[in-house]
Amino acid sequence: MPKTIGPRFPIVITSYEVAMNDARKSLRHYPWKYVVIDEGHRLKNHLCKLLRELRYMKMENKLLLIGTPLQNNLSELWSLLNFILPDIFASHAEFESWFDFSEKNKSEASKKEGEEKRKAQVVAKLHNILRPFILRRMKCDVELLLPRKKEIIVYATMTDHQKKFQDHLVNCTLEAHLGENALPGTCWKGKLNNLVIQLRKNCNHPDLLAGQIDGSYFYPPIEDIVGQCGKFRLLERLLVRLFAKSHRVLVFTQWTKFLDIMDYYFSEKGFEVCRIDDNVKLEERRRQIDEFNDEKSNCRIFLLSTRAGGLGINLTAADTCILYDSDYNPQMDLQAMDRCHRIGQTKPVHVYRLATAQSIEGRVLKRAYSKLKLEHVVIGKGQFHQERAKSSTPLEEDDILALLKDDETVEDKMIQTDISEEDLDRLFDRSDLMITPPGETKAEAGEAFPLKGPGWEVVLLSSAGGMLSSLNS
């Protein structure tokens, strides 16, 4: 750390790594007027090393910059507030007690009746606590000309190849479950969770399972890569149209092995591909990002893992984002979309969320959308809106078994089918996202295309820019 900190160099910009290594050795010797922490969510764990080291520094004022809305996790919220004002928010237990509105002496019926009142009290208390400490700004507040975004779920149907894998996985697991469930000490939750993972792999591509089963290191012929998987077939249909109209595309998935399959497929087809996952070094990331954002680049598709590529990078050269599979944490998907829908974007953005119809994937997605309004407290600009009221909890055995049942409604089955070529062409229209000049009527997103139909449904924006399915509107 240089000894010239002072009037000549009044501002120090450093990384988390340097702060963690030098906070005690060097940084603590200076009285800091302001300390600004970017990516403030890194301090949500009150036991993390970064937070521990920062406490050695003398700070007069502190500012946290957080890109995603705070979620209703009181422990994480307390950690942030404890860092900002340790004297006021000194005790985690006391902070938790502020939100204890339980009525211990009432009957179960009375407790149930008062549940909504309790939730409202929790939200009201959160608002009162947070209002003096939070300034919320959306992209639209600072960039009035930011092009608009539309998110659309597009469904694919399984191939016969996938259905065979699915039937085999489900039948074998459930037969064992029914036969041995009565045994004392038998825990099926882990096996059922593993079944869900295998079924999700099958939805992404059956070769994720086939290679695992037969130990093969070779990919199928590129014709089979498309022909074996309904969702990959849908991806190809989308990309043919997108490339024909010179769109540049980001494709996100959670599975690194599926990135390998896509990388192989597009390379064999002659496409230049950029790619970021956990194994890509920092310098290589920067090189690929610069290459993709270069207007003269021939790279039209960027493959990314949702976790590694969903934060901290700017890919505004793309105007289309494809979420090949959905993350359990919806905030991760929102961050992925924001790689291209951010300040600097000059074109309307389409987000296509792919899902396999009438599968574990379609049911998990429906479940997530139906509960979004009740699962979080979202902080909107200048105000707070109760859209969700409790944090998500892990799935229990009964929940997982319910997801395996084929209980879709008639409407579900109508929506969850292969989209027609005609509707797919109509879906590509972005005219409803164009910003209209002052004085003219501004068309609302979704007017040019129905909210739902055979093979698709439009996702409506919540106050936090998040996802609310038209199914539940």
From TrEMBL:
The GO terms this record gives for MF are: hydrolase activity
Q: Where is the Helicase ATP-binding domain?
A: 1-87
* Entry-linked Gene3D superfamilies: P-loop containing nucleotide triphosphate hydrolases (3.40.50.300), Tandem AAA-ATPase domain (3.40.50.10810)
Which Pfam family is one of those matched by this entry? SNF2-rel_dom
Q: Which residues form a coiled coil?
A: none
- Keyword annotations from UniProtKB, A to Z: Hydrolase
Q: Domain (Helicase C-terminal): give its ranges.
A: 234-401
Q: Which PANTHER family match?
A: SNF2/RAD54 HELICASE FAMILY
Protein name (Swiss-Prot/TrEMBL): Uncharacterized protein
Source organism (scientific name) = Eruca vesicaria subsp. sativa
